[in-house]
Every structure is written in structure tokens, then in C-alpha cells.
Amino acid sequence: TRTGRTTSTIERRVLIRSGDTAHSKTRNHINARVETLHARPLFRRAFQRGRCLVPATGYYEWFDAGEGKKPYYAVDASGQLLLMAGLYERSAAGVFGFVVVTQPSSGTATQYHERMPLLVPEELRENWLHDPDPRPQLQGVSTVLRWSQTDPKTA
């Protein structure tokens, strides 16, 4: 949180929607591009006051290897929990919502999708949460991922 306290409470996964009336007709968003989130009106306030870390054991990408799209699951190659950069807001109704911050793909992720979650390494977690603009420090940071094809019924 921006108050100096770091918490690990997660309410529930909902898609973020700006509380501004100017954005009331926009669709829900699940991702925000790291390159533009500081400037886009939809995400600017959350970037300034609502940065968070989204824990995950991994994430899915649907990829077409010539046999139709199939889900592939990415995990940290060393078995660690992934912490994705996120932004959160609280709606007028008091419901928390968040988006995952994405970056251009790097490493093995480039063969599955052109974008990937911005994965925050342990040594930069406090920077993401508390620095006025932590984006330069996170530029080019890469996590080694292990990919495996999964059953579409479980994805």
C-alpha cells in the first residue's frame, strides 16, 4: 500500500473499472501496459496510489502450435512463487479490483505471446510498491520460466 504498510490480503479477483464518470462506459480491464499506465487516465490514479503485488504459482497463455490454440502454463523455473506487478482501486461500491501490469515478452515467453506479466523480483518488490516511479528499475528484468502444455479443461 502507499501508506508504508505492506499487506498480503487479497479480497477477490475482479476487473478494475475506473470510478470516474468519464470512464463509466469503458469495458473492464484485466491488464495495463507498463509503458503507458502512468499516462492513461484509466490507470493514472492507481499507478500513483494503488500499486500491489499479485501472487501466483504461474500463469496461462493460449498458443497455436499448428493444432489449434492450446493452453500452456508458465511457472518460475526455480519453483518460487511469481509476484506480478499490479494496480488496484476500490469502486464506489467498496469492491476492490485490480489489473495485472504487462510488459513486452522476454526469454522463453516470446514464443507464446508478445506480452507477459511484469514479474517483480524479490529485491525490487519494495521499489514497485513505494517508489514514485519504479518503472525504470524494472525495465529489462526477466524471470526464467518453465512452460508446459496443460489440459484445456483445467486452464
Write the layout of secondary structure elements.
Blueprint: E1 31-33, H1 41-49, E2 51-56, E3 59-64, E4 69-76, E5 82-90, E6 96-104, E7 115-117, H2 125-130, H3 135-138, E8 145-149
Parallel strand pairs: 1-6
Antiparallel strand pairs: 2-5, 3-4, 4-8, 5-6, 6-7
Class by helix and strand content? Answer: mainly beta
Instruction: Indicate the overall shape.
Output: globular
Q: How large is the count of helical segments?
A: 3
What's the helical proportion of residues? 10-25%
Whole-Å distance between the termini? Answer: 31 Å
Q: Count all strands and give the number.
A: 8
Beta-strand percentage? 25-35%
Uncertain spans:
7-26
Give the H and E element order. Answer: EHEEEEEEHHE
Characterize the biggest β-sheet.
Answer: 5 strands, mixed
Rounded mean pLDDT score: 83
Report Rg: 16 Å
Task: Explain this structure.
The chain is mostly beta strands and 155 residues long. Helix content is 12%, strand content 32%. The radius of gyration is 16 Å and the shape is globular. The two termini are 31 Å apart. The model is unreliable at 7-26 (pLDDT under 50).
Give me a quick take on this structure.
The chain is mainly beta and 155 residues long.
Properties at a glance:
155 residues; mainly beta; five-stranded mixed sheet; three-stranded antiparallel sheet; 3 helices
